[in-house]
Design goal:
8-stranded mixed beta sheet; about 40% helix; Rossmann fold; 3 domains; 4-stranded antiparallel beta sheet; single chain
Length: about 625
């Protein structure tokens, strides 16, 4: 029978399905092992968390130096692009490079780890037996035979699991350089293994070299995880949450409130983002899609062809940014890492600020922003040959108002069509929002909407403690309201022994919605929530560690809002539910200034005033958003 790379890695790390245990205790998280098992010859984009109080910049320099020293051949598109943010380092590493950074971890310094690794390199017979046991299990003809062979793994220690799976992936990577590896990664390759000699040789050589190298004075790295890709959480909604009633009854004006939309971009040319005088309400726009290239340690060397190419890409569309100024700025940012300085955002701004009217490639962010702040009362365009009075102003029947038609918006472009638009870019944007607020004596940005979804694997992180969740918590603690989509994993198809099975999935809340301080929003019908309840696609709670999520639900089915090129149309998803709550939070702050800087209080008010739909709390949270009741509760 065939075995997949993922099932092989999970079996080695976790044990048999009847005797599952915790992941091996090395700093390499399970999702990293699985991705390398699938593609052993390819480098993976990783997030590396520094150990305790170690500066991220210095850790980034150490990793960059190691990559240079190892000098593994890299094809175009495989550049390491080592970069750092506050408390985080990103790097694209080959598997061999990942194993070589392990001596920088506190785990590696354990005396028992050292003794056992030396034993494996000096007396490889036991290691060979363990690898052979794994091969036999993977090559077993049926599940019954596999179950019998699984008993031989009972005495596998956490370290022996680490070493054996590392050896198989190392071997697969070296074989892939000679011949194209079959689909399925090591799962497809292990079926052809007859001898373990080559695997043992790879392990002895690598670990022998590592064990001979001196330790750094202090441990530098805590853990290594994947730089996860984020995707949009996509599907008569304002009246349904009584947003229009609250706005009219309480005479709410949101023109002093500013909201950040972290998404694919807002089409600033769209009429609905104008104010009643025809001016734009998108204060600033930032493109974080190239943040890795901007803060990359590769920019220390400005004499390479790769730097020249990177420089031209970053200067594209920035005619006022001269080549020498751009070169000096990028080099200064790279030098700051080695000198233990924080990110110099004033310098980064030269490369991320874009024209607010620059059209995005994907309509998702424009639709989300329209739900928060579309304005149907913008001045009509003046037909040629007629004056403004003759053309007239007033409501455009094609559009309707969003939750806060006069709110100010900040456009943060963190999602795109490239795999490079990942968790690192979102974290950078969240840190930059904190910087903008700290730079002034007042809050520039009062809230942030994240209608995006990063699936969470409970085996890799404590729930709500992933890098993106931690950054959201820091932003909340700084006084910013953070609203996130719950995700669209509520209804899934499963492959079982009996065939395909479809059903609802608990514990399916995605990041950053797992963060405790974030207001996590599920979806319901746009105007008949009591009839239809929670949308079938909306992710269900509770969180992996048992907390109530989502916090509440809002309309997310066939929601009308702005699209690219002056269009207006419908989309579905918890992406569309979240901005309703962002708008409600903005209205509360606009009406009650004392709530500004009190995100947890705002969250409590919105949750306690929500309307119970009579559904399970793990489906609906506290219930459906009710803006009017929230106002009356204060």
């Amino acid at each position: 029978m065939s075995v997949s790379s993922q099932s092989l890695v999970e079996f080695v790390l976790l044990g048999s399905t009847n005797d599952r245990r915790q992941l091996q205790d090395s700093p390499i998280l399970g999702d990293v092992w699985i991705e390398f098992a699938k593609r052993p010859t390819m480098p993976m984009d990783l997030l590396i968390t520094p150990d305790r109080e170690r500066p991220a910049g210095q850790v980034a320099v150490l990793i960059a130096d190691l990559i240079t020293k190892m000098n593994l051949p890299r094809e175009k598109g495989q550049e390491a692009h080592v970069a750092y943010l506050q408390g985080l380092v990103a790097a694209r590493l080959f598997f061999k490079e990942v194993l070589r950074v392990m001596p920088m971890t506190r785990w590696w310094r354990d005396r028992k780890v050292q003794e056992k690794l030396r034993e494996y390199t000096q007396e490889p017979e036991k290691l060979s037996q363990r690898i052979q046991a794994i091969i036999k299990w993977a090559q077993a003809p049926d599940e019954h035979t596999q179950a019998e062979l699984a008993e031989s793994f009972a005495d596998f220690t956490a370290l022996s699991r680490y070493v054996t799976i590392a050896g198989i992936i190392l071997w697969a990577g070296s074989q892939g350089k000679k011949t194209k590896p079959p689909e399925g990664g090591i799962g497809g390759m292990i079926a052809k293994i007859e001898r373990t000699d080559d695997i043992i040789k790879e392990l002895k050589q690598l670990f022998g070299e590592i064990l001979e190298e001196p330790f750094l004075k202090e441990p530098q790295i805590f853990q290594v995880s994947l730089n996860r890709r984020a995707v949009p959480a996509l599907e008569r909604s304002v009246p349904a949450v009584k947003g229009d009633a609250a706005r009219n009854l309480f005479k709410v004006r949101c023109d002093k409130i500013a909201w950040a939309v972290l998404d694919s971009g807002i089409d600033g040319r769209h009429d609905v983002f104008k104010d009643n005088q025809g001016g734009g309400r998108i204060i600033k726009a930032f493109d974080f899609s190239n943040i890795r290239k901007i803060v990359s340690l590769d920019n220390l060397n400005t004499e390479t062809p790769a730097f020249e190419q990177r420089l031209e890409e970053l200067r594209a569309g920035r005619e006022n940014l001269k080549k020498k100024e751009a070169t000096d700025t990028l080099k200064k940012l790279a030098e700051d890492a080695n000198n233990d300085r924080p990110i110099h955002w004033d310098l980064v701004e030269k490369f991320i600020v874009i024209d607010p009217i620059k059209e995005p490639r994907i309509p998702h962010g424009t639709h989300v922003a329209g739900i928060i702040g579309a304005n149907s009362e913008f001045p009509r365009r003046t037909p040629k040959g007629k004056d403004t009075a003759e053309a007239g102003t007033g409501s455009n029947s094609k559009y309707v108002d969003g939750m806060c038609p006069d709110i100010k918006l900040y456009d943060f472009r963190v999602l795109g069509q490239s795999i490079l638009d990942t968790e690192f870019a979102i974290i950078a944007a969240l840190q930059y929002i904190r910087y903008l607020n700290e730079r002034n004596s007042y809050m520039s940005i009062h809230g942030a909407n994240l209608s995006l979804s990063v699936p969470h694997d409970v085996r890799n992180f404590a729930c709500g403690r992933t890098p993106i969740c931690n950054e959201c918590e820091r932003l909340v603690e700084s006084g910013v309201v953070v609203v996130a989509a719950a995700g669209n994993l509520g209804y899934q198809s499963f492959e079982t022994k009996s065939g395909l099975f479809e059903g609802y999935t608990a514990f399916s809340i995605t990041d950053p919605g797992n963060a405790d301080g974030v207001i996590t929003v599920g979806a319901t019908h746009r105007y008949r929530p009591h009839t239809y309840g929670v949308s079938f696609f909306s992710s269900r709670g509770p969180t992996g560690d048992g907390r109530l999520k989502p916090d509440l639900v809002a309309p997310g089915e066939r929601i009308e809002s702005s699209l690219l090129d002056q269009e207006w149309g419908e989309l579905d998803g918890t992406s569309m539910a979240a901005p309703h709550v962002s708008g409600a939070a903005a209205m509360l702050m606009a009406r009650n200034a004392e709530l500004i800087g009190e995100p947890r209080r705002i969250k409590r008010i919105l949750c306690e005033s929500a309307t119970d739909l009579g559904r399970e709390r793990s489906f609906q949270g506290h219930g459906m958003l009710d803006v009017l009741r929230a106002f009356q509760k204060i």
